Amino acid sequence: MRQSPPGRSAHNRLKNLVPPLRDWRFWLIQALIIVCVAVHTTSDKYDFLHPLGIPDFVPVSLFLIPVILASLLFGLPGAISTMTWVIVLMLPDLIAIDPPLNLWADGTQLALIFTTSVFVGYWVQKERQARSQAEQAREAHRAAEARYRSLFESNHAPILVVDNQGNIHDANPAARQIFTIDDQAGIVTLTDCMGIEDARNILQRAASDVARVVSAGERVFRPTCTDIESTDGHVQQIVLEDVTEEVSRSKQMQTYAAFVLRGQEDERRRIAQELHDEPVQAVIHLCRQLDLILTADGLPDEVVARLYQTRTYAEDIVADLRELARGLRPPALDDLGLATAVRRMVVDFENRSGCVTRFRVAGHERRLRPEIELGLFRVLQEGLHNVERHAAARHVFLSILYSGGQVSAGLYDDGIGMALGISSRDTGGGLGLLGMRERTTALGGTVIIRSQPGQGTFMRVTVPTPIY
Length: 468
Hints:
The chain is α+β, with helices and mostly antiparallel strands. It has four domains: 6-146, no CATH class; 155-242, PAS domain (Beta-Lactamase), CATH 3.30.450; 248-329, Up-down Bundle (Methane Monooxygenase Hydroxylase, Chain G, domain 1), CATH 1.20.58; 331-464, Heat Shock Protein 90, CATH 3.30.565.10. The protein is built from 15 helices and ten strands. The strands form two sheets. It has a five-stranded antiparallel sheet. The chain has a five-stranded mixed sheet with strand order 6-7-8-10-9, with helices on one face. It is rod-shaped. Residues 207-211 and 422-431 have low confidence and may be disordered.
């Protein structure tokens, strides 16, 4: 908190002690003091109170009435200024008229009156300051509430205030229009506006996840919940951000990504089929022609040796083309299923990389929908390619777990790991980590990747799998 300079604080304290010179009541009290001084001086000079049986202390006690009145009306400034006025007016009497005994008695009475007035004035001043601060706090609260109410009412985003049971206590005009809330209809609940599932998600704060949205008719909202204290007790303020366009664009992008992936797979299948039907068959035909030539008599040994070498090259070309076609679209995936295709891929990977590779299938192995088998195969294929290119791993473990309504594919390597924020393995070629996530999302599944530099990489993909 910012503190005031010492000089300004002293100035404020002195300003608080200035008597209320513009208040007519203050001057009326001062006039009353003059009357009391006149009564006291006359009594001391002519001694007219003794014959009436009035004690000597009564004239001085009369000062208590105007002094206390000034303390109650004007606080500490009124008490000090009035008592100062009393002392100034009483000095001639105390010095020139009062005998020593009366001087001591009057001085004691004035001291007691002064102390009492200061005490009363101090507490009156303190009470007024406390009351003023409380009023300022109330004004600030009312101003803040008015600002909040203005923002609440004018906000274009729907805002609901609900209790822990889901009863709606307040709603701004935008929310009333969207959810058709009628104050005359009695208690309206969050379930009435959004349905049971979305209302439960909000009340349990599951909707705080950015990916979780709620629906209201044709619109989609992302809720933000805030706990607040109000006159109704502990409630939640729910601000609903309209993300209908965002969700629509996201669905369009997912649809487009799935369309692109299907197009890629169709192109891969076509290329693999053309490789098998044309180049492979042409090279096989070349091998057969070379065999016919080699069976002919009278060829020089040098020519025969070169022909044999050419035939060996042709066989290698056939093997490479078949391997390329199998990589583009493994026949085992369509014919025998996911697990068999992954086993073949693991064997090829181990032969190429030299990594010790283990593969395990758990659960009841079964055939899945073709797009699910293809998607999981591509994700594991890209994972093995990343391990081969970047991980420098010695051991790799793959697994497929079939369960009632889903299938999980996992991959772990003991390589150098990576910083996921940087995605160092996500190079421009191939699917990369983004491609893995896109494929998994297109299948309605989830992908988890955990990795740290020097601690290897773990990946698990889970996809819902209706029985095929």
